[in-house]
Amino acid sequence: MENELSFDLIDLNGNVIRKEELVYIGRGCNASVWKYEKEKCAIKIFYPRGRTYALSFNVFKRMKNLELVNIVKAQQTLYEKTTSTKINKQQFDAYKMEYIETEKQALLDMKMTQLLQNLENLDKDIFVLSNNHIEMHDVNPKNIIWNKEDSMFHLIDIDMYEINRGKVKTIYEKNNIFLYILLRGVIRQEINSLNEMSDTSRRELIYDISSIFSIDSKIALVKKVEELAGKEKDLKTYVLSRFY
């Protein structure tokens, strides 16, 4: 069964995590995710067929000690416990990461002040990643979750991130492109689900939002959010006010 494990896990210090201690959360194409209540963390376990798309050990090492706020990183590598006493630390089967208690939350329902804080945090995270020559990939709406405890949205699934030895400025620009494509995609999906608007209004607003979230207008976007913060309760109120 998909929500049952057939093996225990072990870390490089010899600490064992029994399969019975893990609670199934969900699965993706290449891995399943479990909650480890004992340490209040989540554990991502790769399928054998998903090893090709697993997080690389070099990226793990480089990200491990970085101070990130909105991007969830791997904390510790884990390995399938076998009868062998030898472990190839670079060929890990799973990793620990922060467990986030999520709830369904639309970006459009986010207060302007919260949106601004998220944008600032993400910009800092991207700056840190770029300075360490880490390029983001697989940044899509499925990999964004809402943390109800800190009112922040977090990016998960860093497995396709890679090391880019090019110029930091170029990496930073690429990472910003990925981020703002993500935000445009999320908001586009949410606008399409609004029953209060006609199809024509949706198309016009999606075009407008896409121009706001354009690659080279991050400063303008933050300025717009700063102007609206305190004036509008949330982004949805602002969106609907454009047409009513």
User: What's the Cα radius of gyration?
Assistant: 20 Å
Biggest pleated-sheet summary: 7 strands, antiparallel
The strand line-up of the biggest sheet is 2-1-6-7-5-4-3
Give the CA-CA distance, first to last residue: 51 Å
Mean pLDDT: 85
Q: Compute the number of strand runs.
A: 11
Number of domains: 2
Classify the helix fraction into a percent range.
25-40%
Shape type: elongated
Helix-strand pattern: EEEEEHEEHEEEEHHHH
Number of distinct helices: 6
Runs in which pLDDT lies below 50 for 5 or more consecutive residues are none
What structural class is derived from the secondary structure elements?
alpha+beta
- Kindly estimate the percentage of residues that lie in beta strands according to DSSP: 15-25%
List keywords for this structure.
7-stranded antiparallel β-sheet, single chain, Phosphorylase Kinase, domain 1, 244 residues
Structural write-up:
By secondary structure, the chain is α+β, with helices and mostly antiparallel strands. It has two domains: 9-98, Phosphorylase Kinase, domain 1 (2-Layer Sandwich); 107-241, no CATH class. It is built from six helices and eleven strands. It has helices spanning 57-64, 112-131, 168-192, 199-212, 218-228, 235-241, and strands at 9-10, 16-17, 22-27, 31-36, 41-46, 74-80, 94-98, 134-135, 144-147, 152-155, 162-163. Strand 3 and strand 4 form a beta hairpin. The longest helix has 25 residues, at 168-192. The mean pLDDT is 85.
